[in-house]
Structures are given as structure tokens and as C-alpha cells.
Amino acid sequence: MSLFDLSTTAKRFRFVAVLEAISWVFLIIGMVFKRLEHPVLWPVKVFGMTHGIIFVAFVVVTILAARELRWSPGVTALALVSSIPPFCTVLFEVFAVRKGLLGELSASPMGAAPASAAVGS
Prior knowledge:
With 121 residues, the chain is an all-alpha fold.
């Protein structure tokens, strides 16, 4: 298993959701630097552009995931809205895993089978 295994729609969605949240961290750091007594402007320019690109990628990956995983319009809208407040893409990803919306058999680490599946084997 690769660290950046993007072989499924769910894995691509999860990767971009986390990346979008990380880009928020850097954008907020850039905004803090912009507000200093002696402003440093390059971080907000660089991190703002990066965040914008990742935001667009998240929207595209979300629409593709919604189509392939057959999300309802409400779930799709919730996923898209989650990209607006900082860090909410990760909250949506956790919600989607718990509700089984990502089409994965197991949400446990390393793809291990759930404990209930091992009983009686």
C-alpha cells in the first residue's frame, strides 16, 4: 500500500479533502503575516493561489465522487459546502466514512477486515 494510493474514487476524495484542509492552515498563516506591523505579503499570495487550486480540485473530485458513488443531491451539496469553512472537508470526510458514503468495505486502518467479519471464520 502506497502512501499516496489514489487508485479509487474514495481514496482520491479523501486525499484532496485532507489537502484542502492543510491548504487552509497555510492560507491562515499567510493572512497572519499580512496583518503584522511590517506586513509580509508573499505568503498570502503563494498560499492563496495554492489554496484556490486545491479548492477547485476538491470541487471537481467531489462532483466526480458524487456521480460514481451515487450520492444524493443533499450529500453532494453538503460535500461542496464543506469546502467553504476552514477544515470542514475533513469533517465531511469523517462523516462520509462513518455513513459508508465512500463505498469502502472497511474504514479501519490498513484495510483490515472489521472485527465482526473475523468471528466464525
